[in-house]
Structure formats: structure tokens, C-alpha cells
Amino acid sequence: MDRFIIGGGRRLKGKVRISGAKNAVLPIMAASIIARERSLLTNVPQLADVRTMMELFNHLGIGVRLKGNRLEIDPSGLDRYDAPYEIVKRMRASIYVLGGLIARLGKAVVSLPGGCAIGPRPIDLHLKGLSELGVEINLSRGYIHARARRMRGKEIFLEGPKGTSVGATINVMLAATRAKGKTVIYPAACEPEVIDTARFLKKMGVRITGEGTHRLVVEGGRPVSGARHRVIPDRIEAGTDAVAAAITKGDVVLEGCCPDHLTVVIEKLREIGVEVKAKNRTLRVKAEGRPGPTEIVVAPYPGFPTDMQAQFMALLSLSRGTSVIVETIFENRFMQAVELMRMGARISIEGN
After folding, report:
1. Cα(33)–Cα(44) distance, integer angstroms
2. Is 334 helix (H, G, I), strand (E, B) or coil?
3. Is the peptide bond before 45 cis (omega within 30 degrees of 0)?
4. Alpha-carbon dihedral sign for residues 96, 100, 101, 107
């Protein structure tokens, strides 16, 4: 656990439309391959990671076409079950095809995703959960070799040393759609991106209950079909734009967002003196003067998101007093502190 202490242009104005969530569309794309029929995703963000997943789909024989924010996926031509290192190394979310391929083909060979600049992001919980479903796992020369001969649902304990895992929850949920009987994932991650993936699977015909809670239940072995789905808004993009408005003492309206996904971020902004008004699918963020100090402890959803920690560090560098940020998930998440210090911020770091 690290502890971060802070001592204390131009105004942004106008409206901003929030894009679809990257962390939702990537696992939903992986979920689409468990069917043989086409799926259509809308509100898809124009991002390099989406293109990388499309490249991986092309390698697997899956048809994909992105036009504007509409993504058509045709998994009927799936004829390979390997995800090569050359593609997976560029995007950790490629690991989601592991669960998707197991559900569709009963086998997969997927490169290990490797390290991450912000700290270790192991996949041990992914493999543990899949093994408990009955998937045979072997690691060889940097690849995961998975084969599902007989999968049966069961209760799976899926908590790691730092709490729940979004990636493991989603991968096990995807694979469980093939397992006979009922799979209970506990404690499951509660992030909106997990909920959105579950909702897409339900549209495909999978019986799922408990999404958004720590007890997620999947009834597998049922026929599935393609589905149409609108991806949720990106809560991190919305939170980042809100902080940008606060830093510049601006007045910005964020359109097409989901305020319910930003409850803790909104609370912290209000606590430091930023005016935030939520109405339907919009947020108005207005700031005047320097923000006040606060204390932030990063935690899995619905706690304060680790992906918003760096943005708040920049904002709190302008505060009138001393603020504290405690990072509990990634030990190297304070790399931006050095750059802020070069700009004159008064920062000290305690811990590893």
C-alpha cells in the first residue's frame, strides 16, 4: 500500500459527448464469439484497442466490420483457437478470448499477456476459476493451453490478495456458459463493465443472475445466439473530463454519461468545492477558485477507481491544503508524481 501526500490557462467551457466504454466493449466482443450468429454492437469507441481486438478476430477467422460507432461481428467462420503473442502483447484485454474460445470450441491456446508498467497483473485467478470448472490448463513456452473435455458448474471462490478481479470474473463467466449446471462466482467483481458484459450474454440467451453483486450465477449449457447491444458510456473518460473542468475552473456539460457509475468521483469533487449537477444522462461540472483538500483511498468498485487516481493527483496539486491519496491496487501507480513535481507540485511518497 502506497501513501501519497500533496501540499497545496484557460477555462474549459461547453459540452462534451462521452464515448462508449473501452473496458466494456472488449469483453463483450470476446463474449460474442460463443455464438455462431452475428452480433451488432453500438456506441463502440474509436480506439486502438478495439482495432487490436478486431485484428485478433481476423486471425481467428471471425468477420468484423466497424463503421462509425457500429461494430458488426460474424463469428460463424471461427476456424482457429490460438491467440498469438504478437497480438496479445499489445493489449492485455486479449486474454478475454480465452473464456470465449473455451465456451465456443472447448479449447484455446492463448499467449500469456505479460507485464504492465503500473505493476504486476497476474492471471492466476483466471486460471484457478477455469480449472475449477473442469478446464485442463497447461502452461508451455509462454502460452496457456486450455481444453474443456467435461465442464460442470460449481461454486467458485474468486478473491485474490487485492480483492475481486474484473478480468477473472468475466473470463470465468464466459467459460461457464458452456458448463453444465449452475456456476456461482463469489466474490464476483461488481464493476459496470462486468454488468454490461452479463447483460449482453443475457441477450444472447444465457441465464445470469446477480450481476452487480458479489454473487454472480451462470446457468450454462443452453443454446445461444447473436445479439444487439449498446455499450455503456466510459465512466473513466467522463471522470477525466470532469476533473479537467475542475482544474481549469471551467463549466462543462458531459452528455451521454451515466452518473450512477461515478458516485464516488462526484462525491469527491463536491467535497473539494466543485459544483456537480447530475440529471438523466448528463453531468454539469462547474468550478470556481482553488479546490479544497481531501483524502482518497483507492478501492474496487463501488469504491474510488484506481484509473481516476492520477487525474485527482493533478487536481489536488492545486488545492488550498494537504491531501492524501492511498493506492491499494497497483504499486507503481504514482509514476506521474515525479512529472508533477517537475512542474512545481509539492509531493511526497511514502511506501514501496
Report:
1. 17
2. coil
3. no
4. positive
Residue 82: pLDDT above 90? yes
Query: What DSSP string describes 31-68?
Result: HHTTSSS-EEEES----HHHHHHHHHHHHHT-EEEEET
pLDDT of residue 5: 41
Are 170 and 99 a contacting pair, CB within 8 Å? Answer: yes
Can you tell me the distance from the alpha carbon of 50 to that of 69, in angstroms, rounded to the nearest whole number? 11
Sheet of 39-42: strand order equals 63-67, 70-74, 39-42, 228-230
C-alpha distances (whole Å) from 235 to each of 21, 103, 159, 301 are: 7, 29, 24, 12
**97-111 tens-digit pLDDT:** 999 999 999 999 999
Residue 115's CB is within 10 A of a number of other CB atoms, namely 12
Length of the chain: 352
CA distance to 45, 83, 93, per residue, from 322 (Å): 37, 47, 37
The pLDDT of 270-287, averaged and rounded, is: 96
Q: CA distances (Å), 311 to each of 83, 256, 306, in order?
A: 34, 21, 10
Annotated active-site residue in 116, 190, 257, 258: 116
DSSP alpha helix (H) spans, the chain: 22-32, 48-60, 85-88, 96-105, 124-133, 166-176, 192-204, 235-247, 263-271, 309-316, 335-342
CA nearest to 54, candidates 64, 45, 44, 43: 64
Active site residue 257: no
- pLDDT single digits (tens) 17-34: 999 999 999 999 999 999
Q: Please list the residues that pair with 345 across neighbouring strands.
A: none
